[in-house]
Amino acid sequence: MHPEAAALVAALGLQPLPVEGGHFAETWRDDNGSAIYYLIAAPDFSGMHRLTHPEVFAYHAGAPARMLLLHPDGRVERPVLGPNPVAGHRPQVAVPAHTWQATETTGAWSLLGTFMAPPYHDDIVEFGRTEDLATRYPAHAERIRRLCRR
To answer: Which InterPro entries match (predicted)?
Structure first.
């Protein structure tokens, strides 16, 4: 892991995120919502998954992060979370419920934050299966294969 990423893991008390990948720490939770810090350090990535609730991502530091969003209606988006909107980066990305999502850093590491309302619980996540998603979104099959863990 890059030394700056390792320093962030220690400073923010981040823990490995099982199955999805990356490191996280919950920063807030109540009955209405939850928030986390989320670090992706190359070569790791956020594996393809979907949630039954919407999730809002915010860029905090490091390299921009490239997302792949596969919507239920067949649309595909590839937003880049980052610090420079003039260069096409978005400082915040909202991922609708039931949208397949994966994220990878474009450099050594990316520090992001996410917010969910209602709050996150383990029973609201489903992890993508490579061939199912590659068949449904064939134009993006190569990237799907790289970003799925199943």
So the answer is: Cupin_DUF985, RmlC-like_jellyroll, RmlC_Cupin_sf, YML079W-like
